[in-house]
Write a structure and sequence with these properties.
With 18 residues, this protein is mostly loops. Helices cover 0% and strands 0% of the residues. The chain has no helix or strand. It is globular, with a radius of gyration of 6 Å. The relative contact order is 0.45.
């Protein structure tokens, strides 16, 4: 996600920011 860039794979939020 937009905030998950520092977290595990973007698949967790469903967004493709990474």
């Amino acid at each position: 996600g937009l905030v998950d860039m520092q977290k595990p794979p973007e698949m967790i939020s469903g967004n493709m920011t990474a």
